[in-house]
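Usage

Read records sequentially. Each one opens with the input sequence:
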Amino acid sequence: MEDVNQTVVSEFIFQGLCTSKELQIFLLLPFSTLYLMTVIGNLVVVVLIIVDHHLHSPMYFLLANLSFVDFCLSSVNTPKLTTDLLKDNKTISFGGCMSQILGIHFFGGCEMVLLVTMAYDRYVAICRPLHYTSIMDRQKCIWLVLISWIIGFVHAMSQLLLILELPFCGPRVIDSFFCDIPLVMKLACMNTDTLGIVIKADSGVLATTCFILLLISYTYILLTVQHHSKDGSSKALSTCTSHIIVVVLFFGPIIFIYLWPVSITWVDKFLAVFYTVITPLLNPAIYTLRNKDIKNAILKLINHM
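and closes with the structure output:
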């Protein structure tokens, strides 16, 4: 049975977002536009932070990495989702399916840890401002980003290795627009209840740990902000509000999809679209619209063109 998952099932079939052909054609332009805006928005943020020396600080270094991760996360599913809207037969190879699972959990895990790192950066900046430059030096920032990539990779590989061992011998229809672990596990030719608990525990530990650390960080920051001067506290509060909005938008759908005990197909599809298509676009928009330095850098770039 070692090669049963490779030989018996060579591809999976997606049911897609909906069954209506007319609605799928209608959705083609919005999804194509959203993906194009996500790519441009995130890459513009990365380029701005690299080019403008005024943005060469730990906060923007971490933001550039977050934008790059969002670009990668969106690129795992959205191009396939968009092209499948034109197809009647939405198939994906076994290898392609496993690659999607790896990509989602790699970049998703990386983003969770990056958001915690950004919260830590804001905590040091607001709660220990006199020691900020010594604590958040260049070397430490690089290490924090490397750790986020390593944790994301380890998390993704641990999930993928558990799935690769499953025997798949049909059915091969996935009621979604992409491969995800809970959906693929339903197609295995064995009882996966125990494995499901292990996989949920793996994802749950990472997501819950990051979420708790974020709650503690921002609670401490907001309490500290109350004792600052009015001008300083309003600027700090504005920055933290941007971060908190991003955290809620990212973790909200994940908690419902992976940790909520009741699964409702249309809700899962909507939330999956939200965190793989919408959230990567909202992140650069939120940080750009609420950040004076980024807006100034954009204006400067436009004036030079």
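Summary fields computed downstream for this record:
- The radius of gyration is 21 Å.
- The CA atoms of residues 8 and 169 lie 5 Å apart.
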